[in-house]
Design goal:
492 residues; alpha+beta; FAD/NAD(P)-binding domain; ten-stranded mixed sheet; eight-stranded mixed sheet; 25% strand; globular; flavoprotein
Amino acid sequence: MADDDPIDVVLIGGGIMSATLGTMLHALQPDWSIRIYERLGEVAEESSNAFNNAGTGHAALCELNYTPEKPDGSIDITSAIKVNEQFHLSREFWASLAERTTLSGPDLFINSTPHMTFVRGADHVDYLRRRWEALTDHPLFAEMEYSEDPQVIHDWAPLLMLGRDRLEPVAATRAASGTDVDFGALTRGLIDTLSSQGAELRVNTEVTHLKRERDGLWRVRARHLVGQDRHEVRARFVFVGAGGWALKLLQKAGIPEARGYGLFPISGQWLRCDDQEVVARHRAKVYGKAQLGAPPMSVPHLDTRIVNGRASLLFGPYAGLSPRFLKRGNLLDLPLSVRPHNLVPMLAVAKDNFALVKYLLRELTKSKRAKFASLQEFYPDARPEDWHKQTAGQRAQVIKKDAKKGGVLQFGTEVVTGADGSIAGLLGASPGASTAAAIMLDVLQRCFPDRMAGWRSELTELVPTYGTLLSDDPRTARKVAERTAEALGLTA
């Protein structure tokens, strides 16, 4: 390809979103040229890194923030169903790639790990029981188990019960079909395959500017961070999957659809245990009840995490405030993102979320002893010498305009696309990585609507239930779960 020839697809950011979209587009249009830009020396080193994210394989099996309690006492499972459906799409996508040998060694990135919820106190026990009753009425959650018996909970996850007062009311749910996902390994596998099939990966290269030209193409300006060499390329389609830096690039692109958006950055830390005697006694992901005022991504959990074949335990995350939009971002990220069009939404969010800011500052200033006490609420017999601090990834939550409040803080992901579909970007965080396939299918629909009919056959090869809902057909749901489990080497 000559230097002046336009590239069909430019992907900015070497994370799970770019890897997923690039893989889909190559399968749909193998003749298209693809270039991936990553500002760090390796791909998957920010939010997609295994120790930077929750790694849960979010399926709403254990995360209480997806099942809020309504004023009348009933449990709203709408979000749980949506997230579970979306995660199944990701599993189908990965299974199809594994069957094609496009994605080798699925055990390197996904492993069967039960998902549990654990609560203490009579009120929380009552809530969890009602949540379980509401979820198990739905076919996607019918196999979830529930118990208030300390011995049963001990059998599921011994560390939760060792040293605990046996008179304290406790309850837990368990979904044996849960998974642990190393999104870093998955991303590297996808991008390695793309590179072997002709895609070009440029690491240590930061995209500094995007400009729309009169002919509809995008001029992408980038610089190599080692040699400081600069270059420009023209692209027919640009996807900005740069985590927290996606906003600044969409702002530079000047598309009106990005107006009004801001970001609220939240930092995090884990406590990590690598002692294999301790790790061997807790093969599960256990989520609890969030503290009052805590953001959803800070719900405490004691997780088995399998990275490069070795299991560790993580507890946290302990949230805090940082002006950076990426873990390796800039201290000026937040102030430099302020524009006249997003100032009102950002000020409105600051006013309406003062309690959240106070909570994050309190978490940031917690002593080591206080942080460890939070772990001991989950694992009473935990010993400080078995655990060390691990810095988590940075989360940049979406701020958007709101007609009534001026602006709202959104805990989720937001796809922003240009009117003509030639550019798209992703803002926000959880459940992001776990629902990457569903999000990228949405990007395809928004940006290439005239091609979707022609792509339909290949899309249903990649994701057999694309365009349908598993919850509408329990028999199909069971078959899909069995097929993906077999292809990915999981317990069905």
